[in-house]
Design goal:
Layout lengths: L22 E5 L2 E8 L4 E8 L4 E18 H9 L11 E14 L4 E9 L5 E8 L1
Length: about 130
């Protein structure tokens, strides 16, 4: 398994495997989280963006995952759908990757959701960083 590091946060390299799972650091304009997603599990992040604001969102992991950026209303409609074949309308997607980042500038004020899903057949340890 590949080692992941929080080198931008700590003064020395700290392997994720040595950190407490679900470690979380949140400020009004940033999120830094270490988590483990189980098989077929998701983690959803919601953001309220003003016109012209920029969301920067990145994930690194030891296994593959999917990252989807969508309008929050579209995500809610997809969750509420009774059609098992319904597809989520996405603004941007990275599928089956071990590292992904997205930078999104809001053309107008809106709510967006970033969905990170475990697409592997093993639990996934990941580092999530978001700034807006």
């Amino acid at each position: 398994m590949e080692e992941l590091y929080l080198q931008d946060v700590f003064l020395e390299l700290v392997p994720i495997a040595e950190m407490h799972h679900e470690a979380l650091f949140v400020t009004p304009d940033a999120i830094l989280e270490v988590l483990e997603l189980q098989i077929d599990d998701d983690s959803v992040y919601a953001f309220e963006l003003r016109e012209g604001s920029v969301l920067s969102f990145g994930v690194s992991a030891d296994q593959t995952f999917d990252l989807l950026l969508c309008r929050f209303g579209d995500y809610e409609a997809w969750l509420d759908s009774v059609d098992p074949e319904a597809e989520l309308l996405v603004l941007e997607a990275s599928l089956g990757v071990r590292s992904a980042s997205v930078v999104f500038r809001a053309a107008r004020s809106m709510h967006v959701a970033v969905v990170v899903s475990n697409s592997s057949d093993l639990p996934v340890q990941m580092l999530v960083e978001a700034r807006c």
